[in-house]
Design a protein that fits this description.
The complex is a heterodimer of chains A (658) and B (208). With 658 residues, chain A is mainly β. Helix content of chain A is 8%, strand content 43%. The longest helix of chain B has 31 residues. The chains are: A mainly beta (658), B alpha+beta (208).
């Protein structure tokens, strides 16, 4: 007891003698008192929320815990991941296939979790790829990418991948208008000739499988972000756009001229009716649709051949333009579905449109002309009001359950809390620095879980220890449960965190997959026991059907391989125990390792180039005998007649002992 | 029907629940297994005590210390180990006890009830002795090529890994708990019911 008192005395002394760091920190952003306690998740305890934060130009999706800001996993989605073998092993290579061939990298942007009745259901998370337009679906049971579909007739899939309130659709857009179909033409003929597609992908309610139900062929503006209507506005989708000037060069100037650009309001329910009535036409297209079969845990890539195209004139009364000042970025719909908030990123104001007024304006035909045949609704007829001078460079807004909006301001580098009905600022807090999007768990739904807010910043400068010219990207956690926002924590993120989706941990943690049952493994090259392991030559291909279990491979001595052979290691992890993956690495393999989960099979190709005896080993510290988990392949010269031989403990697996 | 007869018949039929519920459960907890592994011992087989594949996972861990394979479905199929002969004998004994119990109940004699209680007790004692034997064999008859060979600090002899028959024992990184399971409680209930049958019929005799 005495020693504890002694320790406390010393501790108090140390703290009281060292006030300097506290004050210097507070000058960097008024840290809330007891913030440490509020983000501290004790060893062995769980976080309250999962946060799925986009990996930006890493192409991946990261999984964090809130409020601790701890990174749990990086889910490989659009980029190869040698750590896991994703995009390197034979099973996952087809996931990265596109109409342009194999694309090893992507730019992931806006994760969104599936919904039922307007609230998060925790089945899948969708994320879009901007560069080679794609949408991926990730299972929230296995945390693996299950499907990637390419979006044809599009470029820069930015206004994506947001889901409707019953997960009817996930959408894709076009940020860079292009000739459709692609053709050889002068760039300066952009205006009126380039087009954009807004694609609606139907989600199968059981399997989650996506297919492009239809594409709207829109004027060649730059479609930036989008959000679904909900509640009363369910059935509508809203897309923001810039470059209504249709500039093709020096866009920073030429696409910033119009006082007002638009938010497009798309009535997809009405379009469904038109389609049912035979409107629209099929067009030839070529786009990859890559699906993951969980039974064979193998991806297949199929090239789709056509798409249903809807021209605005096919669907009168289904598409309107809402004038919105100055190149709006975010167009965000509040939890009630009444307010559509445009963040005109070059305006010093927030524009709030009213869904009720919009419907009346449509009924009254309160039009202000049209653009390429699409009616423009009168600004006054749809506008609920404007929040004047809230900050500079508004980008994106999310909501709480108390009628408040939280908007990021890129230029003035702050988050502003304001009341939608009153159009009054309640609170503002600086962020470090230049925030892009923010996320409140459930923020894109009828039911936000408004305890935390995560701001995702584009610049960190001096916030962390420097790591050369390239410093980390970061997120900042706020407590928004009170009137004032309270900054609790900075934490670094992978790639550039464009957007995130959060969900209460209890909705996912209990259904998280632990192992894959070996008996359900339908991989054609799986082995179910050591007795089935073997090595087979087919011409110059060698197929090794190998197993792994603590702590050995079977077989672990292989002979009869020749230089010039193509060796396929089909490796099955026979473990059926939680958290016992094994790795497989082959010296000189020109691809990656494989990390194989219990009950799964993965295939790595190795083309030996030199004669010798070459080792392979387990890369994942699996057990006390992990270091012993290794083996050899004997490689003979081209044309040598070394017979195929494979053994474990000098016996052929599966053969009866004499 | 007379109350004692009914008790005798129900009591002896209760034993058949041993075909459904496990007799004993061994639980293994370790730093690496915060969700413990469980081994259910039935009269006919072994089963997963807590989670899917527990039996195979325990069997897999056993190989580090050179313990003999358990008669799991996979091991038996592979021919690596023969199923316990008890998996045949005990079910016969249980069925026999049930049938005899029902017959005794129908006859309805007090002495027969006592006889049955005696038979059950003897079977139980023999069963426990046999169980202890198996635990001893598994704990001591270790593969000389075992990966982990640890000697006892005090005796200097090879460490044995005999699980407790009842209660707790620390075995290397594992905390091993061994307790009777549902099946044993039904045997107890069966004993109580038949004992009641005996008491009821004794009272009847006094009255008469």
């Amino acid at each position: 007891m005495k020693s504890i008192f002694a320790f406390l005395t010393v501790a108090v002394f140390l703290v009281s003698c060292n006030p300097a760091p506290t004050s210097s920190k507070s000058s960097k952003g008024a840290l809330t008192s007891n913030a440490a306690e509020r983000v501290y998740v004790a060893p062995g305890q769980y976080d309250e929320y999962y946060a799925f934060i986009s990996g930006g130009f890493s192409g991946q999706l990261s999984v964090y815990g809130l409020p601790s800001g701890r990174l749990f996993r990086v889910i490989p989605v659009f980029s190869q991941d040698p750590e896991k073998g994703y995009g390197y092993n034979e099973e996952t290579k087809p996931m990265l296939n596109t109409s342009h061939g194999f694309v090893p990298w992507g730019d992931s942007h806006h994760p969104d979790i599936s919904q039922t009745n307007g609230v998060l259901d925790g089945r899948w998370v969708f994320i879009n790829e901007n560069n080679t337009p794609r949408i991926a679906r990730i299972s929230l049971k296995t945390f693996e990418t299950e499907e990637i579909i390419e979006i044809p007739n599009s470029a820069g899939n930015h206004s994506s991948s947001f889901v409707t309130e019953n997960s009817e659709y996930v959408v894709a857009g076009t940020r860079f208008a292009v000739p459709i179909p692609q053709r050889d033409m002068p760039i300066s003929d952009y205006k009126g000739n380039f087009k954009a597609s807004l694609s609606f992908l139907k989600i199968n309610p059981e399997s989650g499988r996506m297919n492009i139900a239809f594409q709207l062929r829109m004027p060649g503006f730059d479609y930036d972000l989008s959000h679904p209507g909900r509640g009363k506005s369910h059935g509508w989708f809203f897309f923001s756009m810039y470059n209504t000037e249709e500039a093709h060069s020096l866009l920073e100037v030429n696409a910033s001229q119009n006082d007002k650009d638009f938010i497009a309001a798309v009535n997809w329910k009405k379009i469904e009716e038109y389609i049912a009535a035979g409107k629209g036409h099929k067009e030839k297209a070529r786009y990859a649709h890559n699906t993951w079969n969980d039974d064979t845990h193998t991806a297949t890539s199929k090239m789709e051949k056509e798409v249903l195209v809807i021209n605005p004139e096919d669907v009168p009364g289904a598409i309107y333009f809402l004038p919105t000042p100055k190149s709006p970025h975010g167009c965000d719909v509040d939890p009630t579905g009444e307010y559509i908030i445009g963040s005109g990123k070059l305006a010093a104001a927030m524009t709030v449109h009213s869904f009720t007024k919009m419907q009346k304006a449509i009924a009254d035909k309160a039009f202000d002309g049209d653009k390429y045949g699409i009616p423009i609704l009168k600004f006054e007829a749809v506008n609920y009001g404007t929040l004047e001078q809230p900050g500079l460079g508004p980008l994106h807004t999310e909501f709480d359950t108390r009628g408040n909006a939280y908007t990021t301001f890129f230029i003035s580098s702050e988050v502003v809390k304001w009341n939608i009905k009153d159009l009054k600022v309640i609170d503002r807090h600086p962020v470090y620095y230049s925030v892009g999007h923010l996320m409140i768990p459930g923020g894109n739904s009828r039911k936000p879980f408004d305890k935390y807010l995560v701001a995702m910043n584009k610049i960190t400068k001096d916030r962390y220890l420097p790591t050369g010219p390239e410093v980390c990207q970061s997120a900042q956690l706020f407590d928004i449960s009170g009137d004032k926002m309270q900054l609790l924590l900075d934490f670094p993120t992978i790639g550039e965190p464009h957007y995130a989706a959060g969900i209460p941990a209890k909705m996912l943690m209990d259904k998280s997959q632990k192992i894959y049952k070996l008996e359900d493994n339908k991989h054609p090259d799986a082995v179910k026991s050591e007795a089935d392991t073997k090595v087979v030559r087919k011409g110059n291909e060698i197929h090794v059907y190998m197993s792994m279990i603590r702590s050995h491979f079977s077989p672990d001595n292989i002979e009869g391989v020749r230089v010039g052979d193509k060796v396929f290691f089909h490796v099955t992890n026979l473990e059926q125990d939680y958290d016992v993956p094994h790795g497989f690495a082959m010296i000189g393999a020109n691809n990656s390792e494989m990390l194989i989960m219990p009950g799964r099979t993965s295939t790595l190709v190795w083309e030996p180039k030199e004669v010798g005896v070459w080792p392979f080993y387990c890369t994942d510290f699996c057990s006390a005998l992990h270091q012993e988990m290794q083996g050899y392949v004997r490689v003979s010269a081209k044309g040598a007649n070394t017979p195929i031989k494979y053994t474990l403990d000098d016996e052929v697996p599966g053969e009866e002992e004499e | 029907m007379r109350k004692d007869k009914l008790l005798m018949i129900i009591g002896s039929l209760l034993l058949l629940l041993l075909f459904v519920f496990p007799l004993w459960k061994i639980t293994l907890l370790a730093p690496q297994y915060p969700e413990p592994l469980g081994l259910n011992i039935h009269i006919t087989h072994l089963s997963d005590g807590n989670q899917f594949n527990d039996v195979n996972n325990i069997d897999l861990l056993n190989h580090y210390i050179g313990m003999a394979h358990l008669p799991t479905e996979i091991n038996v199929k592979k021919g690596e180990v023969k199923p316990f002969k008890e998996f045949v004998i005990i079910p016969i004994v249980v069925i026999a006890l049930s049938v005899i119990g029902v017959v005794f109940g129908v006859i309805g004699k007090r002495k027969l009830y006592a006889t049955w209680l005696g038979l059950l007790t003897v079977s139980g004692v023999v069963g426990m002795y046999d169980f202890y034997n198996w635990l001893y064999i598994y704990g001591h008859d270790l593969n000389p090529n075992a990966i982990l060979k640890i000697t006892d600090k005090v005796t200097g002899e090879m460490m044995a890994y005999q699980p407790p028959i009842f209660g707790f024992k620390q075995m290397l990184n594992f905390q091993v708990y061994s307790y009777p399971s549902t099946g044993v409680y039904f045997i107890g209930l069966s004993f109580v019911l038949v004992a009641l049958a005996f008491i009821v019929s004794s009272k009847n005799k006094l009255k008469n």
